[in-house]
Every structure is written in structure tokens, then in C-alpha cells.
Automatic annotation (TrEMBL):
Protein name: NitT/TauT family transport system substrate-binding protein
Entry-linked PROSITE patterns: TAT
Organism: Arboricoccus pini
Signal peptide positions (record): none
Pfam families reported for this sequence: NMT1
Domain SsuA/THI5-like: 81-293
Length: 365
């Protein structure tokens, strides 16, 4: 497996800084993209799998017989770390795959276009970032949910907020006005009787400064994803608390991140698409069963981030929830209905037809 970037040559200071800038996280976590892209070359090679004793996979398919695939991802996302760890544990090789990871610092539309046009074979990302783009008709099919629990709504402990309804008239800080966190918590607000367009004010700040906005009383809450929210909450000294997450209530068993595969690969080589889907699912189950091993891998690529914190993040996510059957199609349909509720999806979009068009079951014979 190799790590590369479509826009920067790995292994240079410029590439490292560009990756960190695209991620926008100024702490040690911010250099993760650069390191995984090759600023620190991996110590392992394709034929020298570093199997962890608790995760050792079955005998790998010989390298000469593996199918080569390119996966687009965001290496800074802790919740996607099982995908990177899957290589070192031999999981991709076990399923007959030789994968290359490409980091996309560009827009979701560009990432999905790259998959649809064959510049990449598959990608992993957040459903509420992808589904609006997929509404445009990209030839990318969702074959698996990988886990839930990436996002949190943190509120000021001093703002008198006890419930979501208490956010009426308040300001919520976000890093991106089209972010998955903004979309998700807009849905939650709507389901709790608030109009997310008029009853709250969404205000954009640089991602690292979201808690500063609350500290300065320019905002009363913030909506963001891991690893930031985990670190923000840990370092807040009680000034922040988690009001809700995307595991709250009815969302406890809903996937927030998904695997998408180019439609031509599914139609022309279903066996390889199925192998990739199985490998990704196995990787996330391994994160649930052995979070310490996955965290050790992630920390080895990210000096300054503790294994303890990474384990905490992984345990706070549902890596045992990775639907691939019609239940995934149903989850997509529910998201589509909810995105219509908050005026993200077009009113004319039929949620069930949309789900049918973007979902593919590659595991059923």
C-alpha cells in the first residue's frame, strides 16, 4: 500500500504544511494528514505485513495476485483510522487487495467525481457530506456503512442550556456552513420543534477557534466532529458539555460514515467490489474488538497524540455497526427524508428512490 496526494508530492515540508492546512487543525492532530501522506515514510512494505498479535489476519493472498485499488480518504479523521490500520494488520491483503490511499483536500464534489471517473476506485467519508453531492447523480454506489458517532454538539456550561429546545435564540459555532455536523444538528433541532434556519444563528469560525467563540461569548454552542470535539471537551475544564451527538436517541444505530465504490467497478468486477467492502467492514469491526491495537497504529503515525485519547474516541464510536444490506439502504432513505426537512435536499427528491439509486448490495450472491 502507498499513501499519496493528488496535489502535493509527499515527503516534503510543503506537502506536510499543505495537508495540515487543508485539514485546518492546528494541534498535533493537524499534521496527521502530512504524516500519513508520506512525510514520514511507512516502515513496512507490501510484502512485509506488520501483524498485531491480537489482529493477525489469515494468510495474505500473494502480492502478485492482489487487485490494485485506489481509495480516496481523509487521513486526519480518527474514525477512519481503522482503514489505515487494516493494511498493517494484513486485512486488505487477506482479501486479495493491494491498495493505495489518496488524500483529497478538495471538495466532496471533486472527490466523488474522481471516483465516478475512475481516478479513484472507492472512497470513505461522511454520509451527510456525500449524500447531497450524490443527489447530483455521480456514478458512485454506497456499499457499506462503517460506523456511527463522529459528531457532537457541545454547549457552554454557563449559558443555561439543558435541552436542544433551549438553543432557541442562541448562536451555534461551526467550521463549515455545509458541514455534516451543521446538517445533522439542524435535523435534530427540527425534530425538537425548532426551525434551524430562523430559531438559531449559525456562525462560521476557523475550526480550531470554535471553543474560543464560546469562551468569548460570541456563541453558545458548537457543532463539529471528532477528533476536535473530543479534544475540545477534554480540555474545556468543565466549561463545555455534550448536549447531543449523532448517537443520541433514534440515531444510536445509524451509520454516519460510508464506503462508496465507483459504479463501473461494481458492474465490471463485482468480486473485487465485494472484497473491498468485506475488508473495510472487517477493519472497523477490528477497531471495535481491539481499539488499543488500532490506536497504537494511529498514534505511531501521529506523534503528540496519545493512544489513550485515540482509544477513547474509538470507544465512543460504533465501529460494530457497519450495515451492508437493505438496512443501509433504509438508513440512506431516512437521511434523505431528513435532509429534505432542513431544506438541504430538493423538495422533489424521493428519498426511497434516491436510496435505491445510490445503494448497491455487493455481498449478496
Amino acid at each position: 500500500m502507498t499513501f499519496s496526494s493528488l496535489s502535493q508530492r509527499p515527503g516534503t515540508r510543503r506537502a506536510l504544511l499543505a495537508s495540515a492546512g487543508a485539514i485546518g487543525f492546528g494541534s498535533a492532530l493537524g499534521v496527521l494528514g502530512g504524516r500519513l501522506l508520506g512525510a514520514t515514510p511507512p516502515a513496512w512494505a507490501a510484502d512485509e505485513l506488520c501483524l498485531h498479535p491480537t489482529l493477525a489476519a489469515a494468510d495474505a493472498v500473494p502480492s502478485s495476485q492482489r487487485k490494485k485499488l485506489t481509495i480516496a480518504w481523509s487521513p486526519a479523521a480518527t474514525c477512519i483510522s481503522p482503514i489505515g490500520a487494516a493494511y498493517t494488520q494484513g486485512i486488505f491483503a487477506k482479501h486479495g487487495l493491494d491498495v493505495e490511499f489518496v488524500s483529497f483536500g478538495n471538495s466532496t464534489d471533486q472527490l466523488l467525481e474522481a471516483i465516478a471517473t475512475g481516478k479513484a476506485d472507492a472512497g470513505v467519508g461522511m454520509a451527510l457530506r456525500w449524500l447531497k453531492a450524490l443527489e447530483q447523480g455521480f456514478d458512485v454506489k454506497v456499499t457499506a456503512g462503517t460506523h456511527g458517532g463522529c459528531m457532537a454538539l457541545l454547549a457552554s456550561s454557563e449559558a443555561g442550556i439543558k435541552t436542544l429546545a433551549d438553543l432557541k435564540g442562541k448562536t451555534i459555532a461551526v467550521a463549515d456552513m455545509a458541514s455534516p455536523a451543521k446538517n445533522f444538528f439542524s435535523i435534530m433541532l427540527a425534530k425538537n420543534g425548532l426551525d434551524p434556519l430562523s430559531d438559531v444563528e449559525w456562525r462560521q469560525y476557523p475550526a480550531d477557534l470554535l471553543p474560543i467563540a464560546i469562551e468569548k461569548r460570541e456563541a453558545h454552542a458548537l457543532a463539529e466532529g471528532d477528533p476536535r470535539t473530543y479534544i475540545f471537551l477534554k480540555n474545556s475544564n468543565g466549561k463545555l458539555f455534550q448536549l447531543a451527538s449523532n448517537l443520541s436517541g433514534e440515531y444510536a444505530n445509524r451509520a454516519c460514515c460510508i464506503l462508496g465504490i465507483r459504479g463501473t467497478l461494481i458492474r465490471e468486477d463485482r468480486e473485487t467490489a465485494a472484497a473491498l467492502t468485506k475488508a473495510v467492514v472487517e477493519a472497523h469491526q477490528a477497531a471495535f474488538d481491539h481499539p488499543q491495537a488500532v490506536a497504537e497504529y494511529f498514534a505511531s503515525q501521529t506523534p503528540g497524540v496519545s493512544v489513550e485519547d485515540i482509544v477513547g474516541m474509538l470507544k465512543g464510536q460504533t465501529h460494530h455497526h457497519h450495515p451492508t444490506d437493505v438496512s443501509l439502504r433504509d438508513e440512506i432513505a431516512r437521511y434523505a427524508e431528513e435532509l429534505k426537512l432542513v431544506q438541504v435536499f430538493k423538495p422533489s427528491t424521493d428519498p426511497q428512490k434516491f436510496a435505491d439509486s445510490v445503494y448497491a448490495d455487493v455481498l449478496t450472491v
